[in-house]
Amino acid sequence: DIQMTQSPSSLSASVGERVTITCRASQSISTYLNWYRVQPGKSPELLIYATSYLETGVSSRFSGYGTGREFTLIINSLQADDFATYYCHQSFAAPLTFGPGTKVDL
Amino acid sequence: EVQLLESGGGLAQPGGPLRLSCVASGFTFSDYVMNWVRQAPGKGLEWVSTINTRGSTYYADSVKGRFTISRDNSKNTLYLQMNSLRAADTAVFYCVKTKTPPLASIDFYSFDVWGLGTTVTVSS
């Protein structure tokens, strides 16, 4: 099974700051890496798919890059809605796996 | 508007069954790979199962042999039959649509539409 790790597990930031979250896979997953935001009490929301493609309707403050085993999510100019938990997800092979999450708080 | 609406959650006895349903609207259900993903209280997201457009199914090891995913395209409905439930199955279960992949033969891709979730509690 492909194991996903994320760093940091949590971080504190302020509105307007830039945040970087890293996701690593235990083996190469090409660019089959996706990012989701989970706000408290809400369903997950797709932000970035296939490593770097911005999902329709998602703010351009979100961007992603990487390949192989290491991937990065960048959130520019953090807004109030961005205080949430972020998960990476590999869709390269079953069993599909998520990272443990990165909680971004104020 | 694309929507997924889950139902069927509730309190179940350890070792007992429960069936979840998910009604899809706003898109051609039969054209898409569908999934169940769960989140236990205070825990992260966990993929549970996938069914592709041809009916092929995939399961997480933690549910293999106990859960069965199925779909009824005539009713635009996805199901998850859960048997031999355990306390560890307690979670919010989300019905999830797979985003159109770059190749039709790809079963696994990103999850672009999520339902509101239905809560399953396994306890005596």
Low-pLDDT parts of chain B are none
- Please report which band the strand proportion of chain B falls in: under 5%, 5-15%, 15-25%, 25-35%, 35-45% or over 45%: over 45%
- Please give the radius of gyration of chain A in angstroms: 13 Å
Low-pLDDT ranges of chain A: none
What gross morphology of chain A would you assign? globular
Distance between the termini of chain B: 39 Å
Distance between the termini of chain A: 34 Å
- The H-and-E topology of chain B, N to C, reads as EEEEEEEEEEE
Helix content of chain A: under 10%
- Average pLDDT score of chain B: 96
Largest sheet of chain B: 7 strands, mixed
Our count of helices of chain A gives 0
Largest interface: A-B, 25 and 22 residues
Q: Rg of chain B to the nearest angstrom?
A: 14 Å
Our estimate of the beta-strand percent of chain A is over 45%
Please describe what this structure looks like.
The complex is a heterodimer of chains A (106) and B (124). Chain A is mainly β and 106 residues long. Chain A has strands at residues 4-7, 10-12, 19-25, 33-38, 45-49, 53-54, 62-67, 70-75, 85-90, 97-98, 102-105. In chain A, the strands form two sheets. In chain A, strands 2, 4, 5, 6, 9, 10 and 11 form a seven-stranded mixed β-sheet that branches. A four-stranded antiparallel β-sheet of chain A has the order 1-3-8-7, with no helix packed on it. The radius of gyration of chain A is 13 Å and the shape is globular. The N and C termini of chain A lie far apart (34 Å). Chain B is 0% helix and 49% strand. In chain B, a hairpin with a 5-residue loop joins strand 4 (34-39) and strand 5 (45-51). Chain B starts with a strand and ends with a strand. In chain B, the strands form two sheets. In chain B, strands 2, 4, 5, 6, 9, 10 and 11 form a seven-stranded mixed β-sheet that branches. Chain B is mainly β and 124 residues long. At the A-B interface, strand 4, strand 5 and strand 10 of A face strand 5 and strand 10 of B.
